[in-house]
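Quick check before the chapter quiz. The format below is the same one you will see on the exam, so make sure you can read both the input and the output lines.
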Amino acid sequence: MLNKALYEILPYIYLATSLVLLGAHSDMIVLGFSWLLYTAATISWVLRSDARRVNPRRPKVRKSLFLHDDFYESMPFFYLGGGILIMRFIGDGAFFYAGLILFMLGVAILGIRIQHRKISWIDDWRRYRGSATVAKKEHRKRTTSQTCDQCLIRESCRATGLSDISNIKVMDWLSVDHDDAALQRLRWELDEIEFSPVSEDRLFKILLKNKQYQKHCMVLRNRKKMKLVAA
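Here is the expected output.
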């Protein structure tokens, strides 16, 4: 078993070593080894990303090649590797700067993904030494609304199993006319808030249930009052 700190940075060690070898050596054997190491870094990073995400990857346009799961996940690594190869082998004049821009773009995208994907109750799970129950309670606290605590229909809303923030999103959605695309976007938003997938059937049941209590939602009523005062 590897030390935890070493295990966590292993893909980045693979990535940095392979990029250095690709940029500094001309021997074909070394280049072949470095490309294998680069591929290992890419695969290990993507697999860890999948394993540590609670909500599934869901391309917004399933028929789009650009947003296909595998291509989308590997995109920053294509930019990094492609940028290094361009600078290394055809890096004359404008091509060198094009490769550098491609490389920097890959670094930026990878950094953004690392930043966004580390925020979940899984991180709290690690902080609380493996206690999933405590971690989920902490996540629930962050998605609880004090306004909902005072609302007369709070028990009905919370019986859906969603957090207060998600139920407020549902009530907001019900207060305006929407199309099918907006319903899909609502599902994605709930997935992000709950850190677990909300099925279409479940969402329909929640919408039907909450629709009858829509006029009693304290959050929406407070917003209406604020709009009237502002007017």
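If your answer matched, good. Residues 132-230 form one domain.
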